[in-house]
Give the backbone structure.
Amino acid sequence: MNVISFMSANFVARELGYHMTQGWGEGDTAANNYFRPLETFPERFGTMLDEIVQMGFKTLDLWIAHLHPLWATPEHIRAARALLVQRGLKVIGVASHLGSTPEEVESVCALTQSLGVGLVGGDMPLIKTKREVVIALLRQYGVRLGIENHPEKTAAELQARIGSSGEAEVGACLDTGWFGTHNADAPQALEALGPQLFHVHLKDVLAPGGHDTCRLGQGCVQIERCVQTLRRIGYSGAISIEHEPHQGSPVEDVRASLSLLRQWLDQ
């Protein structure tokens, strides 16, 4: 049975009162600034986890703005682990695009390992130029990298990024929403990448050409067909529900999406 997780990047606009007007970077900066102070971190991180539990989740993908490798101290990490245990929550993936230098790659791997997690979903840009360095660090820390299709527009482009060297440490973290943005067939991409799928970010968008996310099933991505494809190819990994509105809270849409996804998986 597939584990269903909550993507904490869904809260990208949370610290802006769900009124984000200057793009993703604005929310990223606000989240880092909010969670970074150690003296307030336990209360703030715990409150966020409570919101996730109240939506019905037991697992989450942790976006690094909520616990960033470049500012998280051992005290931050110990607090985060204790708060997760207290709430019966498990982190199954770290969502990160950090990793342009060996030091950054190692910081992401170390944080991921410290949380007892074996997967980074996103990217480590250094893999484009120093693949052997990234692979060595992934192996050292026992972490796998699922490369997300952003900005790749097709399954073939994502396969090219993953490479054909056969390293067990590198695969796909497929984001259905970005394929919708590029007017590509997300279910077909899932099938093409099936053997290389490490993780799935299940996301719907309102229309091709934009990246306005929405409740699953209300956009252009053919989400139910994506789930049917995952079942047919025997995908047994985790599925993360992703919806990151710039205006308004994602909570009710994500709660409804969770119920709908459970129905589709049970059919």
Strands lie at 4-7, 59-63, 90-96, 119-122, 144-148, 170-175, 197-202, 204-205, 213-214, 239-241. The first strand starts at residue 4 and ends at 7. Residues 174 and 200 are 5 Å apart (CA to CA). The chain has one domain: 4-266.
